[in-house]
Amino acid sequence: MNMNTAAGKGARGLTTTEAPFIEDAKAQGQLYIHQPYEEYSEQNHEAWRKLFARMLPRWEKYANPHFLKGIESLCLNPNQVPRLDDVNNFLNPLTGFRAKAVAGYVPAYKFFDCLRNRDFPTTITIRRADQLDYLPEPDIFHDIAGHVPMHTDKAFADTLVRFGELAYLAAEIGSGIKDEHEKLVRLESIIKAMARFFWFTIEFGLMKGKDGLKVYGSGLLSSYGEIEHCIESPNVQRYPIQLEWVINQYFEIDHYQPLLFWVDSFDHLFSLVDELEAWMKDGRLNNVSGGEPAVNEEDLRSFLVPGSVN
Question: Among all residues, which ones are annotated catalytic?
């Protein structure tokens, strides 16, 4: 590599969609990677500073207390992109979870399998400092400041593990179906139901407490605009969660969510995962309603050949 190329890499840093390190990793077929901390540019750290500073007062107002305790427990530096090793040093002793750096999209089965093993696939790039609002793809702020503080809570962490275990059941159900067309149709429906459950709970969930509704979903916790909108706006429908609604409710990712569901506690959420498992065994996830999210071929294949998961 010549010096001009190296200088170009340094200038671009680890910015979402603009990171040569990530492009190289993908070209080499690497999914699980290390965090090359020296690659972060000053612009990357500036983006983290801006994101953290503007989110902090909204977290204090709208986030559930488990999240606020998690932010404190992780000792996140508000001034620079965190080192995953430092995050894990605080996180792992609490619940056994750790942030695991990935180069990009993780197929559904592998993602759920990571949760089962208390690994959380974590994006290491960060959005541009001049484009701080919601992105359709995750970045390190969404993953570390949005998701990981919740992983410090034992009840929530155990729920994630329990949910991850359902991928094994889904793959086992698929392997027992001899007719290939029926297998694909049934697995696609089950994956869609699981994705919807994850979306309306882990990503966009609300919790009802003595002070009213608070946010625990990471998609909301990492969005400056939507964390306020989801609680304050009269245009958002908010209902106590019902499993039959959630698994049959499509969603779109490119705008604020008009429909959200709340749980009473993380023990309540855990019980819903138990219920989801029972429904899967009884065949009640075999024909959920159509619509988003679409199940892509890579996700479907990951359940058809789960033995390929490392």
Answer: 142, 147, 203, 222
